[in-house]
Recover the amino acids of this structure.
């Protein structure tokens, strides 16, 4: 038997191979995996239906010949005949028409199908979807009649509302609601940062915001990023407060306490600052409901109780009692 002829016949009969190469637009173009580069260099043909695909300039710079073509499933299968390998650089939509067509051909049983491989050439890193949020916010700010007119002051009330709704989802133990409310709070951050970019005197961007908090976290966690030691949560908190005090260099422990926060939280925060500073500050010797509430808030802080959370719990119980009374009244009515 002529082995060369047999090998030639085998090659001709081989249905070949299709490699569907997927990439993430959230990763810089050209940063592809090594298996992706190997597949591209070994391919008999490389196709891409999108002439504006961000990867094309980098592939061509690397010497990869790319045909800007959108073949049908039948044409692609025919192109693989004889054992050829064709790499398809997928567009952002993932080539659904092509893959559906290949599935129909395979289901017909009338065509010798090439080997089909899905090869991710780049992967999203954790947090990559935040880039999508920034891009969406950019477009909304530019094109939405309402969003384009918003200011920091005009949006301030929404930040407070979303924060309260987040706390409510936490206290309710509703995981689905928690995920949604975290997104709403995140939107407020991105929205304000986008508005800040337009300031003519002191502009800053979401990258400045993120860079600032990253630097702060590293500074205030020397036990993680440095040589300091902190073995317990209490030691970590003390270290955080000490580092913060060194950074701020405040003349009073009351500096930095926002006066517009809820009154019980404000009272507890002031009590906490005084206690941590070792100050023995007597409560004002004045009667009245406000001073009674102040005394309760200070007592709660001393006992390690969040007065806001405690009052909300009691208020919810009161709400349930009101509803029960309403149901009872309706039943007897």
């Amino acid at each position: 038997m002529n082995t060369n002829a047999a090998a030639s016949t085998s090659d001709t009969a081989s249905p070949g191979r299709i490699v569907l190469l997927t990439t993430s637009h959230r990763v810089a173009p050209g940063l592809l995996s090594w298996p992706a580069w190997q597949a591209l260099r070994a391919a008999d043909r490389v196709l891409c239906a999108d002439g504006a695909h961000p990867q094309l300039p980098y592939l061509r710079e690397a010497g990869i010949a790319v045909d800007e073509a959108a073949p049908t499933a039948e044409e692609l299968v025919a192109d693989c005949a004889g054992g050829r390998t064709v790499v398809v650089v997928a567009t952002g939509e993932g080539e659904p028409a092509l893959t559906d067509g290949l599935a129909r051909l395979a289901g017909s049983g009338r065509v010798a199908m090439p080997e089909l491989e899905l090869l991710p050439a780049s992967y999203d890193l954790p947090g990559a979807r935040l880039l999508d949020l920034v891009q969406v916010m950019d477009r909304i700010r530019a094109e939405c009649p309402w969003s384009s007119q918003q200011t920091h002051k005009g949006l301030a009330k929404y930040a407070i509302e979303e924060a309260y709704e987040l706390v409510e989802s936490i206290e309710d133990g509703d995981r689905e609601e928690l995920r949604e409310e975290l997104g709403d709070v995140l939107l407020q951050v991105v929205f304000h940062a986008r508005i800040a970019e337009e300031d003519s005197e002191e502009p800053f961007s979401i990258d400045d915001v993120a860079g600032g908090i990253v630097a702060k976290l590293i500074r205030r966690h020397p036990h993680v990023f440095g040589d300091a030691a902190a073995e317990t949560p209490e030691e970590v908190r003390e270290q955080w407060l000490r580092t913060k005090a060194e950074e701020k260099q405040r003349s009073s422990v009351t500096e930095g306490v926002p006066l517009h926060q809820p009154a019980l939280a404000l009272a507890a925060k002031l009590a906490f600052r005084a206690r941590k500073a070792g100050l023995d500050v007597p409560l004002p010797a004045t009667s009245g409901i406000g001073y009674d509430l102040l005394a309760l808030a200070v007592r709660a802080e001393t006992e390690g109780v969040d007065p806001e959370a405690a009052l909300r719990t009691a208020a919810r119980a009161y709400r349930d009692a009101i509803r029960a009374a309403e149901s009872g009244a309706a039943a007897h009515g």
Summary: Residues 307-332 form the longest helix (26 residues). The radius of gyration is 32 Å.
